[in-house]
Amino acid sequence: MTTIFYLEITEKPLGTTLLPESLTVSEIQIDQPQFNRFLYQLIGAPWQWTDKLKLSDEDWNSYVCRPELRTWVAYKEGAIAGYFELETQGKAIELKYFGLEQGFIGQGYGKALLSYAIAQAWAIAGTERVWVHTCSLDHENALNNYQRCGFKLYKTEQE
């Protein structure tokens, strides 16, 4: 049985977000559905992200090529260290996907990148809520990391 945790932030966090100097984060400005698919597979494979693996190229295009979805990629020395996607849903922003590439876990990048993702979500005009869901299949520190960065648990489900 898998437990799904739903978390939210309903007030813009105070302060600034500092990334480690060794980490560069760039927003993808030109939609490339194949790249989003690659990121989903690269980052999600260890955590059993399988929902989107069956999508056709057309479905990936429909998912990625829309103004509501924005994607950022974190790099260290040219290698992909992690990524996140934000989806605008009215006045709410969902952190659709967030994760680090396995080789970068445990180096302090998770909290820094998550804080950066939260700041990017709140920078979107009209944001009143940022939310995410994770599950018991995710990294053992994922739920704690979300909570340390300000997310509050508002619902759990068993699947």
TrEMBL record:
Residues 26-159 form the N-acetyltransferase domain. Transmembrane segments: none annotated. InterPro entries: Acyl_CoA_acyltransferase, GNAT_dom. It holds the Pfam family Acetyltransf_1. CDD domains: NAT_SF. One of its GO terms (molecular function) is acyltransferase activity, transferring groups other than amino-acyl groups. Gene3D superfamilies: 3.40.630.30. Keywords: Acyltransferase, Transferase. PANTHER family: PEPTIDYL-LYSINE N-ACETYLTRANSFERASE YJAB. This is Acetyltransferase (GNAT) family protein. It comes from Reinekea marinisedimentorum. The lineage of its organism: Bacteria, Pseudomonadati, Pseudomonadota, Gammaproteobacteria, Oceanospirillales.
